[in-house]
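JOB MANIFEST
job_type = single_chain_structure
chain_count = 1
residues = 394
[input]
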Amino acid sequence: MASDTLLARITDYASRPDPYPLYAELREAGPVVRQADGSCLVGTYHELAALLHDPRMSVDPRSRGEVTHKPPFLRLDDPEHHRLRTLAMRPFGPPHSPGRVDSLRGEIAQVTEELLEPFGAGGQVDVVDDFAYPLPVTVICRLLGVPNEDEPLFRAWSDALVAAADVRPGEDTTETDKAGDQARVELGGYLMNLAERRRGTPGADMLSAFANEPDPALRLTQEELAETAVLLLIAGHETTVNLITNGVLTFLRHPEQLDHLCRATGLLPQAVEELLRYEPPVHMRERITRADIDVAGTTIPQGTSVVMVVASGNRDPLRFHDPERFDPTRQDIEHLGFGSGIHYCYGAPLARIEAQVALGSLLPRLRTARLVEDPPPYRRNAMLRGPRHLSVRL
């Protein structure tokens, strides 16, 4: 098949259970593979790493005239992006403080144990619906200070926002985009109202910290506050759902490695990093060139959409030894699972800890579990790839 249809084939739902042969084809076709729609694909590790750090690569849709309104900060370039990201991260503490996100570990463990109570009775469970989905949304809601009774609202909003972010070449995304915009407006309005109620009477949550910032120079506007909280929901939620679910699926497909992890639980943080390489929660990132860029001898013209297939780079044999093997003892794991550069995943620190706690608590139960269906049904989204359901018999 022609390489100029690779993106369409990768995003075809039929490829969702196993896109990796197509990623190998992408790497074989060259560092830069032009597509019939004018976009370019890149799937080799070293070229991806360089582009993720290249200031000539833009995330801002205004750079090709798609929108005129100011996008959220994850879709902004520096210096706007740097200012808003720095302010958004302040409630987590100093950027390199050891206890920064780790202080949430106890609360995450508590939520995990509550969700795992039904798992002790045996029978059949859906790892997504019963565990991987409610865990991060509960943690995010508690982090933001959302009342327990309002948590179900967040799932519907999150679903709509993630669907709108998907890469779907050739498809009419009008309705999906409209639903995503509506969800963003509703969620933003809800969070602005909640933050306003905390103004002057702060709690220990992030919205209180945002709303009661004493320094005017460091204060987010109402719109920025709402947008930042929305992004925290997406960045800290969807990556975690996929990371936990892909982790369970990978462990059950590799019983020898699962057994080894059960006996050497100290390897768990390393195993999570290997999962981020082997079965990452994010498979693709899109950028727009702000100038002509030379990549391994190929010029990508200014204004070109570049789809960076980071999951392909994570299995590049020119970078990783035996890349198709899941090895939780692997030492060299400088993966692209959360991206790299200035747009490194905003929710990565939280997702890491949630995955470590969740998978660590699940390990003893998985030892005697088996998959009901393999491959499981996957979500439609090709960019944020993960099972929609994962039925396991305990």
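[summary]
The first strand starts at residue 33 and ends at 34.
The chain has one domain: 3-393.
exit_status = 0
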